[in-house]
Amino acid sequence: MSEPFLSVRDLEKHYTSRGTKLTILQGISFDIGKGEVVGLVGESGSGKTTIGRSILRLVEPSAGSVRFDGTEITGLSASAMRRTRPRMQYIFQDPFASLSPRMTIGEILTEGLKIQGVGARKDRLERARRALEQVDLPADAINRYAHEFSGGQRQRIGIARALTLGPEFIVADEPVSALDVSIQAQVINLLRDLQQRLGLTMLFISHDLAVVEYICDRVIVLYLGRIMEVAPSADLYATPQHPYTRALLSAIPSPDPDARRDRQILKGDIPSPASPPSGCVFRTRCPYALPTCGEAVPELREVAPGRFKACIRDDLD
Q: Could you report the per-residue pLDDT of 216-255, keeping only the tens digit for each?
């Protein structure tokens, strides 16, 4: 079996705030194959963005290993990481805050090329124009400023910025959550087309499970910094194995107003990372929790080929 294109093992991230240790991520392990799109879903505060940023070392992980195309990322020096960054790019959630209002679109798109020492100014601008064309924006947009564009157009510019360096792996962090519903489908279709046309590998972060089902090959379900379930997209949506996954899927609106769905409403809020529950971190909101669920952290185990869950119960119908 070939080595995964991206391999994450035992990733952890901790912060200390006023003398209190906050555990944001703990024991995160997963692989992504070349050309695969993997979704990362969970409620706000589950640690999704921290995983994406830790992989690219936009934040430094506290522990663990990230291997990209056979290279250990976490051990690279700053200069070696800079040489690797063109192959790994990030699409940010907020298209309004992620583009400088003081720079032209041309300056925004060529900034990374300039830092990497790619070509002369003329060559960099030509690459910027090609990137704009890839995201269906006119090449003459390079002379304008971000405030002259709509939210959907700004996110296309953010995608173009990620493409200018010719990446192989992209972390798309909630790339449509800040957009109007009418625009979301256009941007998602653009990302899907680019992924297929360019052969990109992608970690797609979202809280919208309907979007994830449409674009992702596999799905990782995250809760309070731990993985609850991993499965191929079709299998996860058809037969979710973990109680948390079932609750998330039951909340997806149905296009059929007459369809009946067993809605599972989670009680309370996600616990604080300063004082996570003992044992299974989901047990305080789980409708199927047993007294033994608080005794030990359940391991992420394979329950069917390619399917994993972190739950001690196998008797849920």
A: 999 999 999 999 999 999 999 999 999 999 999 987 766 6
The answer to whether position 315 is within a domain reads no
DSSP conformation class of 283: G
Q: Which residue has the tokens 């979704």?
A: 39
Of 163, 13, 2, 4, residue with least CA distance to 68: 4
Residues 6+ apart with CB under 8 A from 198: 163
- Amino acid residing at 168: E
The answer to whether residue 49 sits within a structural domain is yes
Is residue 88 within 8 Å of 167, Cβ to Cβ? yes
Rounded to two decimals, the pTM is: 0.94
Q: Which domain holds residue 207?
A: 6-253+260-309
> What ranges in 24-120 are assigned the alpha helix state H?
48-55, 78-84, 105-115
Nearest to 22 by CA among 275, 298, 285, 292: 275
173 pairs with which residues across the strands?
205
CATH number of residue 126's parent domain: 3.40.50.300
CB 236 within 8 A of CB 242: no
Does the structure show a pLDDT above 60 at 279? yes
Contact 68, 3 (CB under 8 A): no
Residue 36: CB atoms within 10 Å: 18
Domain count, the chain: 1
Q: Is residue 314 part of a domain?
A: no
